[in-house]
Amino acid sequence: MSIPATTRWLEAGMSFEDGLALQDQLVDQRQLGEVTDTLLLLEHAPVYTIGRTRDKSSLAEAALLPHPVHITNRGGKATYHGPGQLTSYAILDLTKYGKDLHVYLRFLEEVLIVTSREFGADAHRRDGLTGIWLGNRKLASIGVGVRKWTTMHGIALNVTRESLPPFLSIVPCGLDGVSMTCLEVEADRDLTVQEVGDAYTRNFWSLLEAERVDE
Known about the structure:
Largest sheet: 8 strands, mixed
Distance between the termini: 11 Å
CATH topology: BirA Bifunctional Protein, domain 2
CATH class: Alpha Beta
Strand content: 25-35%
Order of helices and strands: EHEEEEEHEEEEEHH
Number of strands: 11
CATH superfamily: Bira Bifunctional Protein, Domain 2
CATH architecture: 2-Layer Sandwich
Helix content: 25-40%
């Protein structure tokens, strides 16, 4: 069965606040049946984000950070979004895909793994941790939100070397000793966010079709 769906590349440098406002709008429209399942892709303006948690230690001294901080309604601790990184948000009706958040997280990991391997990075999961890795080097982070079984937020895949330096100012995802990496480093060649995003989009919709629950 084919999946009616929409893919949208957003303007590079969009603020996190504007991206969140668009997601909120699409979630409401998806629940009303006014839009189809939608995948958004972009490179954000530089920003640190953190989920709604009392433990803000992963941000270190927020006032001293080189970029602004946004507290948001996803799961997880501190991460960074910015140029050179593929950020993708999925607005999906999970009632069509089993209504299981853990299965959805593993699905996102699989899309990231398949996509990364296309570019020569043999990524994998790590037991008990969300995201994808190469050894102890983290390549991509995942943080999702769900409202009445409609998803928002999504993944952040480090593509170019430009994406890495801002992570040095925080404790990424609250995990001490984690080294962040990117596809360009692992593949040892120049890449663009556009080409990686196009591959991610193709793999996302292809693998999602297998998750669909017959109605």
